[in-house]
Amino acid sequence: MNGTVEPATTRQLDYLRAHGFNPAHPLNKAEAVELIRRVFAHPGAVPLEEHGPRYFHDRVVGARRAADQACVSELTDCQHAVEAAIASREEFWMDTCRDMSELPHGSAQAWELYRTHGCLFCSPNRAQVQAVLAALDAGVPDWDAEHPELFYETLRLNFPELQRRA
Known about the structure:
By secondary structure, this protein is mostly helical. The chain has helices at 10-18, 29-40, 53-69, 75-95, 108-116, 126-139, 143-146, 149-158. The longest helix has 21 residues, at 75-95. It is globular.
């Protein structure tokens, strides 16, 4: 049997689970190797849950809260922190629609979202991602923690031209 279609080994799956990745579907050996190489092999890797949709949402909320409470002398730094948090969040969602082979490092959650939903789309631009995030944040509290698939449904409804053709 070809190594790329054989199921991932117990050892591979145990390693991934030990680092916080519990796949939603069966992985093959090649997929497991790719995850281990891209996500865990770089120095300073952090737990996977720190790279998920909710992590980036919480960074934006925290940065905005800090900016709201900042004194005048801290305001510029806080505004830059808000902009950086927003950009990181947008980049995460754009990454979930990019082929993971195009990324030097990606979180396992971004990779999993790509495999389950994002692979059906061409990569959106920043303005398209901003529009989707704004709509979801305004209408569905905690969508990114409980129903991240709503990002792709909203993307499909608002930007049907991004759907890949079979």
